[in-house]
Amino acid sequence: MTKRFKGIPLSVLDLASINAGSNASESFKRSAELARRTEQLGFHRYWVAEHHNMPGIASSATSVLIGHIAGATSHIRVGSGGIMLPNHAPLVIAEQFGTLEAMYPGRIDLGLGRAPGSDQATAYALRRTLHSSADQFPEQVEELEGYFAGTERVHAFPGEGANVPIWLLGSSGFSAQLAAVKGLPFAFASHFSPDYTMQALQLYRQNFKPSDMLQEPYAMVGVNAIASETEERAQVLATSQQQQMFSLMRGMPAQFQPPIEDIQATWTDRELAIFRQTLNSEATLVGTPDQVEQKLSNFLAKTEADEVIVNSAVFHQEERLQSYEYIAEMMD
């Protein structure tokens, strides 16, 4: 049974990081171990995200990894946070997630994003139409829904008639408004776009129209959360994710790095200015279990979210598991 934090289910976001000196095989083993442990702890969902051309992230073949995670667990919901729909033919996604739902009935979620999840060169390699794909996102979502409903000229087998809940994901107001109009659940990426959280949630709730899937708005927010025995250790553990952010900003993506004691020694003044607000945002919760619990409680009180998805990006697997265990202890 799903445990809750102040009445709110907590879920897991996993980027399937490839640690420095490691490989994708080890990443998938660590993800399966984390999924089994968080299932035992009472987390509600386990989502993985599509990224490409990033040596530190192993979740590029997202639907394949979802099958691996679902096969390693027994009841936790497993899904995408998200599939970047402009990268794919909607028919293929309907077939892939119809297959997953047939394998693991009642456990598969399909979260959709409109960003490419990559740079332009990678987008070209994926054969996307760069100038029009974002504008076509609403039509792509509608086409995908048609394959599940069986109303398209071409039929998805497996897929047609499958009970796969569709979520829209976003870091701005576009997907919030689209989710509202379509009556779909909405997940906002507050863990990396904290400044737009309240605006997007307001747009979603104010414009929501009931649908066959959802009668009331349902909003999930993402948080970065790292809990450790001491605040000092938690801050050190957080430097792995900070290094990952810096490497992406510099256009030099790398494998996920071990924590370092003094990350400020590696920052430029420009990077400090850019990341100071994000790293200190209300959606980044780093500290002792008590500190993380208070920060999470404050964030929920502000956002009134219906669910929270937690990214605990920690290099050492033992401390990564421990962070989620500390968070689980906060649940009812």
From TrEMBL:
Pfam short name (any one): Bac_luciferase
Taxonomy, superkingdom: Bacteria
Coiled-coil annotated residue ranges, if any: none
Domain spans labelled Luciferase-like: 11-298
Any one Gene Ontology molecular-function term assigned to this protein's record: oxidoreductase activity, acting on paired donors, with incorporation or reduction of molecular oxygen
Transmembrane segments: none
Gene3D superfamilies: Luciferase-like domain
GO CC terms in record: cytosol
Entries under NCBIfam families matching the protein: oxido_grp_1
Family: To bacterial alkanal monooxygenase alpha and beta chains.
Name of the protein: Luciferase family oxidoreductase
Provenance organism: Planococcus lenghuensis
